[in-house]
Amino acid sequence: MGNVILIGFMGSGKTTVGLKLSYRLRRTVLDTDREIEKEEKRTISEIFAADGEPYFRDRETACLKKLTGSANNQIISVGGGLPLREENRRLLHELGQVFYLRAKGETIYERVKNDTTRPLLQGGDPLAKIRTLLEERDPFYMAAADVVITVDDKSFEQILNEIEEHVK
Ligand code: S3P
């Protein structure tokens, strides 16, 4: 309990903000994608390719349940699709204060356009995919969030200051 949780679309900066925030607040940081990769001993891309997205989504819920019993006063960044499940949103609230790093499609595209590690954005027209997914997902992120931080055109310094102002 008492954790700081970072949610948002792929490329919104959750992992980097999580790391920087961990130095500032002197709290340890963990990322659900990395936890799942460690447990499964394979990458997210390998999990999607071999077992499909529904399997991965179940692993996310299992990971959150485990954290609910163990994580205190940490910083937790979560995969971009995790807050879409209602059960996961409830678990996030149990875990702590939820910050949504909200970004526009163009901002995200600039950050992820050369990235091959995110299976949902491979192939086709990535900007169009980002826009469609973002429109679908934003209401779920908003529903999960205690605090919304708009990240477009802001430095990490500004983003961290804003988060710090809100941390209880
Ligand atoms: C996903 C986001 C990824 C990872 C997986 C699926 C998504 O995490 O969990 O590729 O559905 O948005 P990041 O948000 O850390 O890239």
Separation of the first and last Cα atoms:
12 Å
Structural class assignment: alpha/beta
Q: What's the average pLDDT? A: 95
CA-based gyration radius: 15 Å
Given as residue ranges, the uncertain stretches (5+ residues, pLDDT < 50) are: none
- Give the topology string: H per helix, E per strand: EHEHHEHEHHEH
Count of runs of 4 or more consecutive helical residues: 7
Q: Could you tell me which ligands this complex binds, including any ions or cofactors?
A: shikimate-3-phosphate
| Beta-strand percent range | 5-15%
- Level of helix content? 55-70%
Please give the number of β-strands. 5
Shape: globular
Largest sheet: 5 strands, parallel
Biggest sheet: strand arrangement: 2-3-1-4-5
Task: Give a written overview of the molecule.
The chain is an alpha/beta fold. The chain contains 7 helices and 5 strands; from the N terminus they run E-H-E-H-H-E-H-E-H-H-E-H. Strands 2-3-1-4-5 form a 5-stranded parallel sheet, with helices on both faces. Helix 1 crosses helix 7, helix 3 packs across helix 4 and helix 5 packs across helix 6. The two termini are 12 Å apart. The site of shikimate-3-phosphate (S3P) has 10 residues, from loops.
What characteristics describe this protein?
168 residues; alpha/beta; five-stranded parallel β-sheet; 7 helices; 13% strand; binds shikimate-3-phosphate
